[in-house]
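Regression report. Comparing outputs from two consecutive submissions.

Submission 1:
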Amino acid sequence: MSLLIKNGYVVTPEKTTIADLYVENDTIAVIGESLTQRADKSIDASGNYVIPGGIDVHTHLEAPVGGTVSSDDFETGTRAAAFGGTTCIIDFATQSKGQSLHEAYELWRKKGAKAALDYGLHMIVVDIGEGRIEELDDLVEEGVTSFKLFTAYPGALMVDDATILQVMLRAGKKGALVAVHAENGSAIEYLVRKALLGGRTAPIEHALTRPAIAEAEAVHRVIALAQIADVPLYIVHVSCEESLEEMRRARQKGIAVFGETCPQYLLLTQEYLKRPNFEGAKFVLTPPLRGYADQEALWKGLQSDDLQVVSTDHCPFLFETQKRAGLNDFTKIPNGGPGIENRLQLLYHYGVNQGRFSINRWVELVAANPAKLFGLYPKKGVLRVGSDADIVIWNPNRKHTISAASHHMRVDYSMYEGLEVKGNAETVISRGETIVDQNTWSAKPGRGKYLKRSSFAGAWSTWK
């Protein structure tokens, strides 16, 4: 199967040029001007941008959280992602206490068998007892080249500093990257107990008991541990100015600290958690939403490259059933929100259209940098001869109103309900196959491939 894309504005992090792309089977074969190759299908992209498919490196599909399971599985979640211009995800396999890392990995591979898009896996480590630390080596050989640790959720996911240090040292030897969810879980647990004893049970208490300083303290601490281990560090879902400042100081000292933020932290505030009729529960996610000053700081962090990636932390729960479990106790509201479909739309509209950064930086944040940091580059995240033909034709003039009535995520609300964005995916191509065209879906579940990712040590050579 061959494909010729003509006359589009081809966007890379470095430049934007009018060019043609010729695809053979699943690979970009030629990029140039006025190509004349005969193809099975031809697309005229005149007036549109041609970009590499987005890569979302932080999703939680069919994930167990607080006694329930996130409402999107690998079939529905990857389908929704594709409609928004994302062609690849990295999800989180989660070890349970007492479980081997291999067992967790195999369980998530079975879940991933339904994926419509190519996918990789991180591993969440919660238990390194009984020699399990050695399993990290084997997982790296399986292409799991990043490991996530939590300083939050005591009794469930939280690990102590010694465990974090051990994993960092072991991962560093294999060239793997350690990612951390950074919040001071013990302090937060105390504040939560205090709120409940005082009869404070509404959704807003979720934000009030998880102050920004509790995030920043944990960011500072794990940076120190990364210094001891002499390994790079990736901070997930940075939500506040204080955390960003900790990362900035570390980077100024030459410490390899990377980070992501998410659209919700750029566009929403904790005031949403005060909405009446329990509507605030829709916005209970962790870390919590912050304030306007934090939003502005995060946008500046993206501009200055103190933050390198925008992901979604997509972890949806049905409002009418799952979220309402916490009607009388905010701690029982499952933490997480939907967004896998809207990432590129929101970042393009509020980033590019509003002059916060260029379209080239947009492509860097949503595709190239995720691929480089997580061992997918240059097969993914770039339009280059020899790269996978993961291509999005982006219509910069197409208006779209975000709504639960029209989105493709399996969830009954949108965090961005009613927002009108300008710029949207017109055609989405995954490994040379057109899977979305003019809002029509044509892919089969299970067509996605598991991606064995290269090590961060190898990816480092592709970095700036």
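Submission 2:
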Amino acid sequence: MDSPSFSSDDVARLVEAAATVAGAAELTETLEAIVETAMDLTGASYGALGVLGGHGFLTEFIHKGVDPETAKRIGAPPSGHGLLGTITRVAEGVRTDDIADHPDSVSFPEHHPPMDSFLGVPIRVGDEVFGNLYLTNSEGGFRDGDMANVEALAIIGGSAIANARTSRRLRTVAVVEDRERIARDLHDAIIQDIFAVGLGLQALAGRLGESEAAVEIRDATSKLDDAITGLRRFIFDLRPPVWAHRRIRDELAELADSLAEPHDAEVELLFRGEVDSLPERVTDEILPIVRESLSNALRHSGATNITTSVVRHADRVVVRTIDNGDGFEVEAANNGMGLSNLRSRAVNQGGFAEISSSSGSGTTVEVTLPL
């Protein structure tokens, strides 16, 4: 049996993968590079990487080797049962020459390509498992050295995921702090100045009695009051100033923090694709969709972990909220909990909404909007 070791070529490729992690603009690009590098190192025909959310469900699934049409026919990504569940549970690598021979193996879904040899490792940092990296169909089976190489890649992947989540939290804090600074400046300077001008106009109107000038001044004072009300509303509004370059990541992070603050549930946001360059009309729809679905999950589901993801495809954007709460019978709640609002928003934009849930199994709300 081969001893686990790194050849000079393997080391070069692993260093290249680490450099990709440091230079990638998006987490998804990094994870795709890790899967491709793992396939290259081991000679695997198929590779995949699944990222787990705090609720234990897959929140992102990247695969290579299966063509898009076949992947579409297969349907939903793996749910984490079988060998993948074993890797997560024991937090150790698994290698077998034939998947079917492993005691934890489960059958493949319809249209799935045949797979025999298997190598899978957990993606983790320390004791925290973020997901799985696995490969199949290496000619002649996988070697011990393959396991060592893929475990090294999994460490890189774990660091990338951990760094991305830390960066998102830091960005959220920065946005909140910036918002508070702007709010203070607006209140302490502009609003106070307008208020002082309004008081002066009221005093002047009082001295003019019921003259036409006094009426006009009182009307102007009323408009100033409206302006103050609008500014105060603006301060507490979740949307950024109209002159700012909109970043849906920051807007949704601030929205999620605001909604989650009174609750104990952990809320995670994930983004994939060029979401910050979405059309304005689509961004305007995504915000209330997330507000509705996330608010429902926080207030009604009893969930401890909720993940909302925004994924941009070539012709559509998919907004998905998953919780590990109590679940409910969808048909019985068809007209309640804001579900009709979600469906109406989606249909009005030429899209559609799908809600899947059952008692005790959590809820998934998925809204697809065309671009």
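Expected: both submissions complete independently.
Actual: both completed, but the second showed a warning that disappeared on reload.
Relevant detail on submission 2: The longest helix spans residues 144-207.
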